[in-house]
TrEMBL record:
It holds the Pfam family Response_reg. InterPro entries: CheY-like_superfamily (IPR011006), OmpR/PhoB-type_DNA-bd (IPR001867), Sig_transdc_resp-reg_receiver (IPR001789), WalR-like (IPR039420), WH-like_DNA-bd_sf (IPR036388). Residues 127-224 form the OmpR/PhoB-type domain. One of its GO terms (biological process) is regulation of DNA-templated transcription. This is Stage 0 sporulation protein A homolog. It comes from Eubacterium aggregans. One of its GO terms (cellular component) is cytosol. May play the central regulatory role in sporulation. It may be an element of the effector pathway responsible for the activation of sporulation genes in response to nutritional stress. Spo0A may act in concert with spo0H (a sigma factor) to control the expression of some genes that are critical to the sporulation process.
Length: 224
């Protein structure tokens, strides 16, 4: 499930956005500490940020710049100040889109879905590393790093993590994982997959990534 951080100081607008997006299957969090938005960002680890321009303490441009120092996730500005100058400034600060208030929630949802597809569906094709929850999978070195720890991965461990981390928030079926593992020269059946996932979870827990891989009974696995 994709996580969306809503940085909007109008409680009614923030609540209506959160309720609407939750109905579409998104996991939402509304920032409340507008003097420490970056703390909320790092704690929530969202896949996308909705950011108002006019905020208490620091404006949205400031927080966009701060987020861009540590992340390239999609950012959509929401603002009633929709003149050309503000739109240009938002894009120059690193925003991916700008939506003028008032707006239709259906339009906002469509823009969010489009940005998430572009940002995450094909991430594995253009990046030599995948990052989820602070865990970094190196597609060149076949390693997983988290904080100060680093795991040398087996071929199967790497392929399992690669598929899951290329699609954060999405359930990957056991059949899809087995199909990926079949690309190796090893025989993989349902029991073998279970053994591989169990062993991988144990190794992840040893470096602090407990419950990194979630099981959706009858559906498959995901990382969030």
């Amino acid at each position: 499930m994709y996580r969306i951080l809503i940085v909007e100081d109008d409680d009614s607008i923030a609540a209506s956005i959160a309720t609407h997006l939750s109905g579409w299957g998104y996991n939402t969090h509304c920032a409340t500490r507008f003097s420490a938005v970056l703390d909320d960002f790092e704690a929530w680890d969202p896949h996308l940020v909705l950011l108002d321009i006019t905020l208490p303490f620091f404006n949205g441009y400031h927080w966009c710049q701060e987020i861009r120092k540590i992340s390239r996730i999609p950012i959509i500005f929401l603002s009633s100040t929709s003149d050309d100058m503000n739109i240009v400034m938002a894009m120059n600060m690193g925003a991916d889109d700008f939506i003028a208030k008032p707006f239709e929630l259906t339009v906002l949802t469509a823009k969010i879905a489009a940005l998430l597809r572009r940002a995450y569906d094909f991430i594995g094709e253009s990046s030599d590393r995948l990052v989820v929850q602070g865990a970094v999978l190196s597609t060149k070195e076949i390693t997983l790093s988290y904080q100060d720890a680093r795991l040398e991965l087996t071929k199967n461990e790497y392929r399992i993590l690669q598929v899951l981390m290329e699609h954060p928030g999405q359930v990957i079926s056991r059949d899809q994982l087995m199909e990926k593992l079949w690309e190796t020269d090893l025989y993989i059946d349902d029991n073998t997959l279970t053994v591989n996932v169990t062993r991988l979870r144990k190794r992840l827990a040893e470096i602090g990534l407990t419950n990194f891989i979630t099981t959706k009974r009858g559906l498959g696995y995901l990382v969030e």
